[in-house]
Amino acid sequence: MLNHKFDSVKQVLLGDVGTGKSSIVLRFVKGQFVEFQESTIGAAFFTRTLSMNDQTVKFEIWDTAGQERYHSLAPMYYRGAAAAIIAYDITNPATFTRAKKWVQELQAQGTAGIVMALAGNKADLLEARKVTAEEALAYAQENNLFFMETSAKAAINVNEIFHEIAKRLLQSQAPQQNTGGMILVEKAENQSKKASSCCS
Questions:
Q1: What digits encode the pLDDT tens for the residues 189-199?
Q2: Residues in Cβ contact with 139 at an 8 Å cutoff, skipping those fewer than 6 apart
Q3: N or C: which end of the chain has fewer CB within 10 A?
Q4: What is the C-alpha separation between 69 and 81, in angstroms, rounded?
């Protein structure tokens, strides 16, 4: 089979301030975690190429600022995006509510057929959990997203969420397949028991 390469797949991260979007990207692109990450101003740009079997997906990732004052800039970054990760903090219900608003905005104004992932970040902080995985999964399934709980700090499901996006982008070029909602919570909970329960 010929090598199938996606050039410049535009990917955007959206979510409230403090949900760990920048930490997710840093973990994925550089394999690093910074305990006290400064808030993004405007947006930050990263690239990483994933090879999957005989196929390649090059991500051009826009990590957007979560502060409300930067909301008006968001369409500039999600316009034309083939994929989006909408992040919330599992210990903060307000960020889950905000994530739903981002989903609605993308559904109304985003690219047709955009691959959307809902990321419940800070999955290492299980004792402080306020948003259940079941609630988030139900929402994701109702809105044609896929869902994973992640921890940038403990390196839980960060690479997996990008690999799943890449897989779905490649599938979208092939005959359509219904992959449905998915959840990788059990793995997150098992791994997070070994992780520190500080900040994510």
A1: 444 333 333 44
A2: 100, 118, 145, 147
A3: N
A4: 22
d(CA 91, CA 111): 30
In CATH terms, the fold of domain 4-192 is Rossmann fold (3.40.50)
Please say whether the dihedral angle defined by the alpha carbons of residues 166, 172, 177 and 178, taken in this order, is positive or negative: positive
Q: 102-112: per-residue pLDDT in tens?
A: 999 999 999 99
Task: Name the 3-class secondary structure at 83.
Answer: strand
Helices (H) and strands (E) in the chain, counts: 6, 6
Which pTM does this prediction carry?
0.83
Domain ranges of the chain: 4-192
Sheet holding 43-52, edge to edge: 43-52, 55-64, 4-15, 83-89, 115-121, 146-149
CA distance 22 to 25: 5
Q: Which two tokens stand for residue 54?
A: 């005989």
91 Ramachandran zone, left/alpha/beta (phi>0; psi -120 to 50)? alpha
